[in-house]
Write a structure and sequence with these properties.
Layout lengths: L8 E4 L2 E4 L2 E3 H8 L3 H9 L7 E2 L6 E4 L2 H13 L4 H9 L3 H39 L9 E5 L2 E7 L4 H22 L10 E5 L1 H6 L6 E6 L9 E4 L2 E8 L5 H14 L2 E3 L3 E7 L10 E10 L2
Antiparallel strand pairs: 1-2, 3-5, 4-5, 6-11, 7-9, 7-10, 8-9, 8-13, 11-14, 12-14, 13-14
Length: about 290
């Protein structure tokens, strides 16, 4: 049934082998893969058995094929699909090989970027949810130190204070369309808000037509990035958007009582819109940077 040299048995690496031919199970064990994996590679013309017994259908591999299996596993761990690996093996041009590798490097770089952006934004969500547990009661003015933040801002034709929640949603749709047109990761849309110029806040003529998203150092330079410097803020949190103007007045009254002045624009930051136990509604925080009068 077998060639004469099949009858010679020897040991290598703890596995019994007949000369240099290995059964599929031995080849799998030697290389820490499953027999199903070897069958898959054979089916995809990547690594076919060196010999298949015509009577039993048993598959046999050689030690020399381990090198090719090592390469397949290495390329697969680099996220190359089996079809692309087969293409690489079939290439006869070094130039084309380099092109295929550059394409995969580019795809992995984009994947790493998107994963890093997603991770950063999930960390931001976690921080916001943790912040909810430390907030004073809704409507209560409080001081807080806030480190430097970066925003991407977009002016819109809508105004929250005159149009209410519908205006706010239209502002968000404008921002969402902007992200889509710029092909920016949608995970940045998790933490959004609106801005009111300091002058309008100080004069009590509340109007807000500017929407923003918080961004990080991975975010591309869109030409509309704005940095909010570190500062002490007077803040109020709430889950009722109809009370924002009233709470903005409270910020102004407290700032005046403390003999302080505004050092920047008023922002309204959405902390969460998840249906949590804290509220069935959106939870937001209005903030104004302040400093002592000189």
């Amino acid at each position: 049934m077998f060639p004469e040299f099949f009858a010679k048995i020897r040991r290598r690496g703890g596995i019994t082998m007949r000369n240099t031919l290995l059964k599929i199970g031995e080849m799998a064990e030697l290389n820490h893969v499953s027999t199903q994996t070897l069958r898959l590679y054979s089916k995809n013309k990547l690594l076919e058995p060196q010999y298949m017994d015509p009577e039993t259908g048993y598959r046999y591999y050689t030690l020399e094929q381990c090198a090719k299996l090592d390469l397949i596993r290495a390329l697969k761990s680099c996220h190359l699909p089996l079809g692309k690996i087969r293409e690489i093996f079939e290439l006869s041009s070094e130039e084309r090989l380099l092109q295929v590798l550059e394409e995969q490097i580019g795809a992995l770089s984009e994947e790493i970027y998107n994963s890093s952006v997603s991770r950063n934004n999930l960390l931001r969500i976690r921080r916001n949810i943790q912040t909810l547990n430390a907030l004073p009661p809704f409507g209560q003015v409080f001081f807080e130190y806030v480190p430097e933040r970066k925003l991407d801002v977009q002016n819109t034709e809508f105004d929250f204070f005159s149009q209410g929640y519908q205006g706010y949603e239209n502002m968000l749709r404008h921002m969402q369309n902007y992200l889509h047109e710029k092909k920016l990761p949608p995970s940045y849309f998790i933490n959004v808000g609106t801005i009111m110029d300091k002058e309008h806040f100080m004069e009590g003529t509340y109007t807000s037509q500017t929407a923003f998203i918080f961004v990080d150092d991975l975010y591309p330079d869109t030409g509309s990035i704005r940095t909010l410097p570190q500062s002490m803020y007077l803040s109020v949190a709430s889950d009722n958007t109809s009370l924002e103007a009233e709470y903005a007045n409270r910020l102004y009254e407290e700032m005046t009582r403390q003999d302080m002045i505004s050092s920047g624009d008023y922002i309204c930051e959405v902390l969460t819109q998840f249906p949590l136990d804290h509220s069935e509604h959106m939870i937001y925080k209005i903030q104004i940077p302040v400093r002592r009068r000189s």
